[in-house]
What we know:
With about 70 residues, the chain is mainly α. The chain contains three helices and no strands. The protein has helices spanning about 5-25, 30-45, 50-55. The radius of gyration is 13 Å and the shape is elongated.
Amino acid sequence: MSIDRAVMAFAGFVVLVSLVLSQVHSTYWLLLTAFVGLNLLQASFTGFCPAAMIFKKLGLKSASAF
């Protein structure tokens, strides 16, 4: 798995988990969804993604997602 796909999978997972938690516990969990969305948006403009840096340190290879 490439870094690009791992970041997208992780972001999708966090969004789904936060949606479930917002239904089960508190609607404040939707702030996590907003954080993920804002982070994806800023990463698209700046190229800086903390999750990508972590996945790179874990040994995933960089590649084009599509």
